[in-house]
Specification:
The complex is a heterodimer of chains A (567) and B (512). Chain A has 567 residues and is of the alpha/beta class. In chain A, the strands form 6 sheets. In chain A, strands 3, 4, 7, 8, 9, 10 and 21 form a 7-stranded mixed sheet that branches. In chain B, the strands form 5 sheets. In chain B, strands 1, 2, 5, 6, 7, 8 and 19 form a 7-stranded mixed sheet that branches. In chain B, strands 10-17-11-12-13 form a 5-stranded parallel sheet. In chain B, strand 7 and strand 8 form a beta hairpin. In chain B, helix 3 packs parallel to helix 12 and helix 5 (81-102) runs parallel beside helix 9. The longest helix of chain B has 25 residues, at 115-139. Chain B is globular and about 70 Å long. Classes of the chains: A alpha/beta (567), B alpha/beta (512).
């Protein structure tokens, strides 16, 4: 502790008890990075660098030091926490952070508890992505793609019986078995890394203290120096008669113990379109009810192309309608439901009969029932989301938050993982790298997959002005689709360049098979600042879909022909 | 007929005089003449025509020893990338049929593959491309001659039609883009008589049946891979290492996977003769150099994939002084694709030291046309060209192999990050992912610039393309680590590579 001395001017200057010699050593070694000033002493409070004598004095005068110390609750219980870090929520972000913290020999606890859906569906450790999100979604999407492959394969010389039926239960069981193995894997990983795991609902009861309630209602209190909130989101319900009684959400769909049959999907989010897409691909009669636009927030030109493709592939769309009532006609697995819907532009009322109604109208942050008021963590009252600074810190300095519950951040598994890891590295390993939420690539697994990175066309126009952006685009026909001669000129590639900045690529959009695999590398290139010229200078890999991006020559402005012909 | 009329004055003197004579008599018929209507030649011709130049393309397919021939478009379209990838797709669909059952699709056995249905479909598509190329030439006002060309003087090409009719065409500038053709091991008795090559395979009307593929080139492994995939008894015979020139760790993973996929391998074996049996089967005899024994087996088809030779012999290059590499027979070009004769250029597989890849030929052809007629000075950059081998488990790469990196920088100065991963789709399908592997070769010091990236797994080409661009932009390891993954894809594992080979730690990716 000798290297960090108390400043004589300030009488009380507590130095974090967890700042052990080795960390202090690291801090000293990192002095040049941390502090541009060379004058000593260097003062750290709660491992936060304050500065030299003058800066410390200034901070003291402004009351910042005092605030920092008090808010961390340091004065009340300085030495007796049960844990260094308690993570509330065992999803992608929470688990990544917990395991990372354990690497630095921190005492870590994860609280995870799945509140069952209104229909009683529940699942294991791992959060949304693993249990009711990315993983089962992509596997069922794959099942649907294989359905297409079966049709294609006949054109490629394969012969088998005419009629091929899909067995929902067989698929769901395989998918659930795999998920079960992942749940188990997470538990083993936590144990190996010596992270304490409790299958209990965590909520704050007072500063630095959470109450953990398990399935049997047994309550325990735990204290920690720091907390990480990573509780994620759950599907929203409509708030109309019959919604919670008869409708399902994506939380139920992937483990549904019977084939959903004729399905109405309500919503136009990516969840809605992905689920509608694979259900139709498995041969079900699917209708999507949309209030206004598809895929809000995504490039609308692409969103509409996705919609068109889905319509052409047999999915019905009811546009500008919202359900107002869901009634059960007949019980069963599946039963029969009557849905009454109202036009959003007139008084028209329509009715329809379905076996299953899947709500995918959005997701709500799980932040209102975890005692945030007890510790003073601010949330956006309207959305329930938690505002954080660029270091994932809430307004209460010892409480952090990552993942889907963050305000104005992306709801993506890899983002949550990255944010969690980097946060922990900053907290416990002296790292300074912050999570970069810019140019994050993503993929929507609709029947025609959509990969994107950077600006949508409309947001680019808004930000830079139409005259300052150049959009290059082209349709393309995957070679594999030529022999079955399907879907010509449905796949589409578009890049958006900033003319003022050397035609730097600021938006990348691809609609076609394996869009995720295609987009990933380009996202890395965008991170490296790729320009249109560099794109043109890159040699394509022949014959793959991704090579189209190395030969884009038609600008949208020109109105030139973008239908592809030949090699 | 103008050419015929012109011919006598062409013959008046040596090259230099000819040019003078031509200058006096006015211009040649064409601003640009391209010999060879493959990817590179067509791209060059069409680009030149965009600048309003008078352009002609000569294309003529000399039938293979087995009599196979095809239309306009060159190797890639007719007997290369296109039919190869389509047949590879047929094989992938065979795996999809198996996977589908795990995903709930009830497919009753037996599932069978009919070669003729596939071949017909592939050939029809290729023919539509042949037609497309002809239309495109017409649209772009490029004159097309289906004749075999050879130099009669530096500015004149003598063309021969199929019927043996002679034509002479003059041009200001000439581009040679005649590509390469599969090599036959002429010293092996029966090789030419009974063997086929990739020039024939894609046009076979009937299934090749039990097949022996000789060679360890990517052509060999790709063909053996899809033949296995559609259910044929397939054996690869190789003398030494697979995929020479590619990263050898990756290459052995590729063949290891093929073995588990059902392809048989005869390693360190050299064929000595091929005989036809009364049953019409082909009996192949080979030397097992490991055991020093002579072995034999019979096959329905024997395919040679022992390399390709440039199509330069009939061009009469000596007459005009275009230099070739005496060992390879390939044309020596400079950075601007110019041959030893200043107004004669060459692009594509026929050029010495260039990658034999369609997209490089196309890019080189286009850039050449722009330099010749479009006031451009941009040269083709042959560095960091990505490529993909479409074996059953695909292998995509860009930049240096680990061996090359070690050779260039020394093993102490490079860091190799690697990972074994399992594609999500393989889990439910209960597919083995032992060979799904990736590695990134970086400089060890400072910025850790990426020198090479290697990926084995499904859709390798789609995965590598974007990263190739990143590497072109000078991507470093930290930049790649800052790139957020797309979940769940295979490509995201590249952004998560963190185990160095040096550490010796287990590189198996677990969980999400």
């Amino acid at each position: 502790m000798r290297i960090i001395q108390s400043c004589s001017v300030i009488q009380v200057l507590l130095i974090s008890p967890s700042l052990k010699e080795e960390n202090a050593q690291k801090l000293q070694e990192g002095t040049c990075e941390l502090a541009t000033e060379t004058s000593q002493p260097l003062v750290f409070v709660q491992e936060k660098h304050i500065g030299d004598h003058e800066k410390t004095l200034k901070a003291h005068k402004e009351g910042k030091l005092q605030k920092l110390l008090e808010m961390n609750g340091h004065m009340q219980v300085p030495h007796s926490y049960d844990f260094d870090l308690i993570v509330i929520g065992g999803g992608s972000g929470g688990l990544a952070a917990a395991k990372e913290a354990a690497k630095y020999d921190k005492k870590v606890m994860v609280l995870d508890f799945v509140t069952p859906t209104p229909l009683g569906t529940s699942w294991g450790l791992g959060g949304t992505c693993v249990n009711v999100g990315c993983i089962p979604k992509k596997l069922m999407h794959q099942a649907a793609l294989l359905g297409q492959a079966l049709q294609d394969s006949r054109k490629f010389g394969w012969q088998f019986t005419e009629e091929v039926k899909h067995n929902w239960m067989a698929m769901t069981e395989s998918v659930q078995n795999y998920i079960g193995s992942l749940n188990w894997g997470y538990r083993v990983a936590l144990r190996e890394k010596k992270v304490t795991y409790e299958n209990a609902y965590g909520e704050f009861v007072r500063p630095h203290t959470v109450k953990a309630t398990n399935k049997r209602g047994i309550e325990k209190l735990y204290t920690a120096k720091r907390f990480l909130i990573a509780t994620g989101e759950r599907p929203r319900y409509l708030g109309i008669p019959g919604d919670k009684e008869y409708c399902i959400s994506s939380d139920d769909l992937f483990s549904l113990p019977y084939c959903p049959g004729k399905t109405l999907v309500v919503g136009a989010s990516y969840v809605a379109l992905e689920c509608a897409g694979f259900l139709a691909g498995l041969g079900l009669d699917v209708t999507v009810m949309v209030r206004s636009i598809l895929l809000r927030g995504f490039d609308q030109d692409i969103a509409n192309k996705i919609g068109e493709y889905m319509e052409e592939h047999g999915i019905n769309f009811i546009k500008q309608f919202v359900p107002i009532k869901v009634e059960q006609i007949e019980e069963g697995t599946p039963g029969r439901l009557k849905v009454t819907a109202q036009s959003t532009v007139g008084d028209q009322i329509i009715e329809g009969e379905y076996n299953t109604v899947l709500l995918a109208i959005g997701r709500d942050a799980c932040t209102r029932k975890i005692g945030l008021d007890k510790v003073g963590v601010k949330i956006n009252e309207k959305t329930g989301k938690i505002p954080v600074n660029d270091e994932e810190q809430t307004n209460v300095p010892y409480i952090y938050a990552i993942g889907d519950i963050l305000q104005d951040k992306l709801e993506l598994t890899p983002v949550a993982i990255q944010a969690g890891r980097l946060l922990v590295q900053r907290l416990y390993a002296g790292a300074t790298i912050k999570c970069d939420y810019v140019n994050v690539p993503t993929t929507v697994f609709t029947p025609l997959e959509y990969g994107a990175c950077g600006y949508s066309e409309e947001s680019a126009v808004e930000k830079f002005g139409e005259e300052n952006i150049e959009v290059y685009h082209s349709y393309f026909w995957p070679l594999e689709w030529t022999v079955p001669s399907r879907d010509n000129n449905k796949c589409y590639a578009k890049i958006i360049c900033n003319i003022q900045d050397n035609e730097r690529v600021i938006g990348f959009h691809v609609l076609g098979p394996n869009a995720g695999e295609v987009t990933q590398g380009f996202a890395a290139a965008i991170k490296c600042g790729m320009t249109k010229a560099q794109l043109d200078n890159t040699i394509g890999i022949h014959p793959v879909c991704a090579e189209i991006f190395t030969t884009l020559s038609v600008t949208k402005r020109s109105g030139g022909n973008t239908l592809q012909a030949g090699c | 007929m103008a050419a015929l009329w012109r011919r006598p004055e062409r013959l008046l003197g040596a090259a230099g005089l000819c040019r003078t004579a031509r200058a006096l008599s006015g211009k040649s018929e064409y601003d640009l003449l391209v010999i060879g209507g493959g990817s590179g030649g067509l791209a060059c011709a069409e680009e030149a025509a965009q600048f309003g130049r008078k352009v002609a393309v000569l294309d003529y397919v000399e039938p293979s020893p087995q009599g196979t021939k095809w239309g306009l478009g060159g190797t890639c379209v007719n007997v290369g990338c296109i039919p190869k990838k389509l047949m590879h797709q047929a094989a992938l669909l065979g795996s999809a049929l198996k996977d589908a059952q795990h995903y709930g699709w009830n497919i009753s056995q037996p599932v069978q593959h009919t070669w003729s249905v596939m071949a017909q479909a592939v050939q029809n598509y290729v023919k539509s491309l042949n037609w497309g190329h002809r239309v495109q030439l017409q649209d772009k006002k490029v004159k097309y001659f289906n004749i075999k060309g050879s130099f009669s003087d530096p500015h004149t090409i003598r063309g021969l039609t199929k019927a043996g009719k002679e034509t002479f065409i003059t041009a200001e500038k000439i581009v040679i883009a005649t590509g390469g053709r599969p090599k036959y091991p002429m010293h092996i008795a029966g090789a030419l008589e009974y063997g086929i090559t990739s020039d024939d395979l894609f046009w076979l009307k009937e299934s090749p049946g039990k097949t022996l593929v000789v060679g360890a080139s990517y052509v060999s492994l790709e063909c053996a891979g899809f033949l296995t995939g559609i259910g044929l008894d397939t054996t690869v015979m190789m003398r030494s290492i697979p995929l020479r020139g590619f990263d050898q760790q990756m290459s052995s993973l590729v063949t290891e996977h093929m073995e588990s996929y059902g392809t048989k391998f005869l390693k360190k074996c050299i064929p000595t003769k091929v005989e036809k049996l009364e049953s019409n089967k082909l009996q192949v005899t080979w030397q097992n150099t490991d055991l020093g024994t002579e072995e034999t087996d019979s096959f329905d088809t024997v395919m040679w994939a022992v390399g390709r030779v440039p199509d330069t012999k009939t061009l009469n290059l000596e007459t005009v002084g275009v230099k070739t590499n005496s060992e390879t027979g390939k044309i020596v070009v400079d950075a601007s694709e110019a041959t030893s004769v200043p107004h004669i250029y060459a692009v594509g597989d026929i050029t010495e030291g260039r990658p034999e890849l369609t997209p490089t030929a196309i890019a080189a052809g286009k850039l050449l046309a722009r330099r010749l007629f479009g006031q451009s000075s941009e040269l083709m950059d042959y560095d960091n060209v990505p490529t993909t081998v479409f074996t059953p488990l695909e292998y995509g790469c860009v930049g240096l192999s680990e061996e090359e990196a070690v050779q260039c920088y020394g093993s102490d100065n490079i860091e190799v990050y690697h990972a074994y991963y399992k594609p999500l789709e393989f889990t439910v399908a209960e597919r083995d992912a032992t060979q799904c592997y990736m590695k990134m070769v970086c400089l060890r010091e400072r910025e850790q610039r990426i020198l090479g990236l290697h990926f084995i797994g499904p859709n390798a080409g789609e995965v590598i393309q974007g990263f190739a661009l990143g590497i072109k932009c000078g991507a470093t390891y930290p930049q790649l680590m800052k790139t957020i993954g797309i979940h769940p894809t295979c490509a995201e594992e590249i952004t998560k590579l963190h185990i160095t080979k040096r550490s010796g730690l287990d590189a198996t990716v677990t969980g999400c």
